[in-house]
């Protein structure tokens, strides 16, 4: 099936650019309630699956063995901005494990947080691996590595941590992954269908009352994300602003190359979407539209209008804006 | 006609994201030599048409009346990085006109040049309108405004400068523009077909030996761009690096929302392309592929490989890269 028109950028009286994508809404039973484009399209979920990658950390007992609180669990599922609240927490987490920045395998990049970036730039200081937006996920990997007594190269596909991640990922998506790529942070990223990713989000949404360590872990990670939106991304970012706008009712997560997921525990629904061209602005607009459609986000909220509404130029003149394409949401 | 597959982002052994677009190669007679997607697709050329917007500046005699050199003419066609070489030149240009930063109507934004950005951020200084990537184009508009003795609101659609731009734009594209939008810099941006934009680039390519002030102006602007690639964009940017890689044989220009054009005087060919999703990485990859195809850019040149080749993550591991889609270039 072809991807569906989802988001348009208008300028003046014409559509200037257009984005196609695939999206599914799944119920707690794992069935597709609604779909656009091709539910069987295979994608890399990228960072949108960090809560899946964190399941072994919690269900193994590794998280409790070192007393990880909800803020750290949220950070394990985060693509953080590298602000002080994020880097201080990761640093303290590594200290608690008796480990250091050099034990991470995520690589270094400049933080997106304005103040943190300014601090580094203006002091001619290079960012370190703790600034990497995935350092919370990697601190989680290191926590499980220590718990399992495994070796230091925890991003290797054959490492016990990644094998545990793969097993949890395949069970929760309900699919054998057709393969994996290497993510920006050097961890394996397992491919899945849009339907599989939506099914996984619905599993997290419906985890309450289900028996077993995995369901309990899913509920804990989901609730940690909802309770600490500031840890999942950062000030000004879509995940943080939209979760706050929904009053903590919904957990959402972005992934590179325009993937976005949402977990709606009250409705016991899961959402997964991918914009085929990888345009993040369109993934943010599309998840905004679907959350509005499902009644959990106010279309008039500033956080919603920032992703799906009028745009102004450098002199404040309205030039156009992002809209949903006919037939989508 | 539907847009054509043009650029793919691969990760591991699968295509992660894909970009569709429209492109034409036109000869000096204005005929389409080759096309992908729909040559009749209507687009906003955005900054890719700055050399068209500069035609009235030169053909009116306004540029010579104030002795604009080739560096300033290149800057009139530029989306510059706001580096010192750009901002010092615009400031000197305005001084020469007896005008000031406040006379500009482009608005202010942070420069993309790293050193300039660092200088402003670390001294807590706000950028001014001279930092706007379009300030050279606007200095050109002000030069023509003064020459015509017109009013200060030179970005108004009814202003003599914009009426002169519209007339030149329509004559060189060979089409009546179906309308205009307001650009990021507040100037009107006239819509055209991809074929019309390609025809305009072929006009610039074949301007030598043609009679009249317009053809002479087109050749001068084109040659100013080729002689001063550093003024057209900035260090590290696609226009500057690719023009240098081609040894000044070709003039190229990017436009917002993934438009790219090229002027090939030796071949008397013009190229215009638009990636429908507005993804700049794909527009840069697509123009790179077409310039390689036409034999003016070496596929192995670092500037080409940077836009169309393998990508590495934060730890230097190759994760995949951008490729041309089957059937394109």
UniProtKB/TrEMBL annotation, chains A, B:
This is Asparaginase. It comes from the Bacteria. PANTHER family: L-ASPARAGINASE, PUTATIVE (AFU_ORTHOLOGUE AFUA_3G11890)-RELATED. InterPro entries: Asparaginase_II (IPR010349).
């Amino acid at each position: 099936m072809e991807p569906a028109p989802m988001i348009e950028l208008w300028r003046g009286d014409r559509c200037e650019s257009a984005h196609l994508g695939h999206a599914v809404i799944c119920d707690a039973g794992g069935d597709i309630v609604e779909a656009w484009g091709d539910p069987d399209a295979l994608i890399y979920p990228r960072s949108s699956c960090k809560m899946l990658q964190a399941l072994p950390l919690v269900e193994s007992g590794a998280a409790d063995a070192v007393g990880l609180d909800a803020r750290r669990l949220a950070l394990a599922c985060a693509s953080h901005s590298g602000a002080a609240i994020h880097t201080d927490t990761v640093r303290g987490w590594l200290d608690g494990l008796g480990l250091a920045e050099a034990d991470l395998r995520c690589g270094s990049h400049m933080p997106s947080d304005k103040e943190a970036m300014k601090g580094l730039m203006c002091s001619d200081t290079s960012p370190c691996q703790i600034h990497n937006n995935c350092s919370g996920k990697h601190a989680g990997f290191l926590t499980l590595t220590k718990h399992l007594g495994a070796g230091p190269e925890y991003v290797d596909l054959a490492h016990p941590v990644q094998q545990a991640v793969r097993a949890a990922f395949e069970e929760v998506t309900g699919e054998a992954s057709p393969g994996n790529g290497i993510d920006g942070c050097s961890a394996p990223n397992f491919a899945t269908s849009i339907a599989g990713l939506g099914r996984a989000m619905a599993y997290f949404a419906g985890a309450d009352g289900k028996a077993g360590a995995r369901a309990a872990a899913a509920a804990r990670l989901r609730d940690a994300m909802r309770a600490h939106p500031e840890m999942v991304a950062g000030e000004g970012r879509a995940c943080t602003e939209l979760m706050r706008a929904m009053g903590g009712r919904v957990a959402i997560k972005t992934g590179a190359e325009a993937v976005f997921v949402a977990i709606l525990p009250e409705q016991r629904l899961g959402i997964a979407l991918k914009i085929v061209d990888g345009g993040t602005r369109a993934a943010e607009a599309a998840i905004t539209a679907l959350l509005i459609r499902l009644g959990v986000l106010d279309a008039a909220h500033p956080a919603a209008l920032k992703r799906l509404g009028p745009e102004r130029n450098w002199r404040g003149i309205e030039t156009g804006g992002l809209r949903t394409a006919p037939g989508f949401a």
